[in-house]
Amino acid sequence: MLKLTLVLAVLANLGLGTAEPFFDILSNLMNKAINPRNNDCRAPSTDKYTEACSEINEGYDYADLMKSYNDATTAISGVSIYQWQRTHEGVSQLSSVGALMLVLSKLSQNAVDETRSQLYNLINLDNSKEVRYLIPKVAKEHSATSGDFISTLTTKVFSDKVFSKNFIKCTNEVIMGETGVLDYNNPSAAAEEINSWFGEQTRFDRADVVTAADVRNDSGLIFATCHNLEFEFDQFIFSELVNISFYISEDNVTTLPVWKGEGKAKYSFNDKLQAHVVQLPLKGDGTLVVIKPPIGRVPDLLYYLRDNRNFANLLAESQETYLKLYQPLNDYVVRSHDSVLGLKLANQLTQIYFDDFDGFRGILENGSGYVTNMFHQIHMSIKGLGQNAITSDCGENAKEVVIDSGFVFYVIGPSGGAPELCGTHLS
C-alpha cells in the first residue's frame, strides 16, 4: 500500500477544523517512510529549485508515472473520506482530491529543502522533471469542456503581492492555472472577486465559496480550484423515481425517493464486508462505483478502503450481469471546502502557513510567500435521468439490488485510474 507520510493529515476530506480526533492515528503514522515505486524508503530529495518549468515529452514512462500519481490520489481519496466521517458523523460528503493534487504538484516546483521532499512524497513523484513530464498532461486531460464524460479542473492563485513573471508563466504551463492580485485590506471586495472567479468556472448556478471573514489583511497565497464533472450512464437506464424505506440506522428509517434502473453492469457481493459492489458504466468509458455495506457499517467500510489495494481488489471481483437497481442519485450536487484545514494536521507541513516561512522560491517578486487557503468547489451533474423508458426484456432474469442504507461511491474517469470524485450518501 502506498504509505504517504502526510496522507492521514491531508485528509479529513480536505476540510477539517480540529486536529484532536486524529492524533491517535497521526502519532503512529506520521513518521512512517514513503514507499516509492522501487519499494525502498524514499530518501530526502536532492532536487533543487530552478525556474525551468516547460513540459517535458520524453525520457519517462507515462504509464509508470501515471500509476504512481494515481496510487497517491486513490490513497488520499480513501483516507480523506474515512477521516471526514470520523469528525462529521452522519453527514454525506463529496470530495475531489484531483484538484488538491494539481496545486501541491505546482507548489513542489517552488519549494526547497524539507518542504520540497514532503510535497514529492505526497504526490508520489521524485523530482521536478517528473512533475514537468506528467502534470501538464494531467492538467490538459482535465481541460475539455465537451464530450460524453466531462471532468474539468481550473485553478487560480491569489495574493496581495506581485507574482514573479516566471511563476505566472509556469502556473499556466504546468497546471493551466491563472494568477490574480487582490487588496486584502478590502476583504469584502477580495472575497467577491474570488467568488466571481468561481462563478465563471461553471455553467451551473453560482454558489459562493468565500466570505469576507476568510480574507485577512495578513493572508498569504490563496488557491482556488473548481472541479466540474458531468456524466451520463451507458447501457443502464434510470427510468423513474420510486419511494423506498431508507435506513439511516437500524432504528431510524425514512422514506426516500430513489431512481429505479435496469441494464448491464458489473456486480459482486463481498462476503468479508457483507457489501454489495456495483460498477455502472458511463458514456465516455467512465465508471460509477457504489459500495453498500450493512446498515450502519459505512465507517468500517471506509476504514477498509484506506488501502487503495483493497479498493482495486473489490473492483476486480465484480462480474458483468443484468441488474435491476434501486439507487439514490442526485442529478446535481455542489460542495465547497478549504483543504488547508486538513493540511494543517500534517505536522511536517505546518511551516508553510506562517508569514515568516522561507521555503518557497520564485512565487513572488519579493519574498517566499506562504499558504493561507486552498478553496475547492465541486459541481457534479448526472445527465439523462428519467429521460428514457426501460425496453429490455431481461428484467425477469435480472439481479435485484436495493441501495436502502448508507453507501460509498466513486466516479472513475476514462483513464481507469484514480477516482475523479469520491463521497458518501448517508441519509
TrEMBL record:
<dbReference type="InterPro" id="IPR036186">
    <property type="entry name" value="Serpin_sf"/>
</dbReference>
<dbReference type="GO" id="GO:0005615">
    <property type="term" value="C:extracellular space"/>
</dbReference>
<dbReference type="InterPro" id="IPR042178">
    <property type="entry name" value="Serpin_sf_1"/>
</dbReference>
<protein>
    <recommendedName>
        <fullName>Serpin domain-containing protein</fullName>
    </recommendedName>
</protein>
<keyword id="KW-0732">Signal</keyword>
<feature type="domain" description="Serpin">
    <location>
        <begin position="79"/>
        <end position="427"/>
    </location>
</feature>
<feature type="signal peptide">
    <location>
        <begin position="1"/>
        <end position="19"/>
    </location>
</feature>
<comment type="similarity">
    <text>Belongs to the serpin family.</text>
</comment>
<dbReference type="InterPro" id="IPR023796">
    <property type="entry name" value="Serpin_dom"/>
</dbReference>
<dbReference type="GO" id="GO:0004867">
    <property type="term" value="F:serine-type endopeptidase inhibitor activity"/>
</dbReference>
<keyword id="KW-0722">Serine protease inhibitor</keyword>
<dbReference type="Pfam" id="PF00079">
    <property type="entry name" value="Serpin"/>
</dbReference>
<keyword id="KW-0646">Protease inhibitor</keyword>
<dbReference type="InterPro" id="IPR042185">
    <property type="entry name" value="Serpin_sf_2"/>
</dbReference>
<dbReference type="InterPro" id="IPR000215">
    <property type="entry name" value="Serpin_fam"/>
</dbReference>
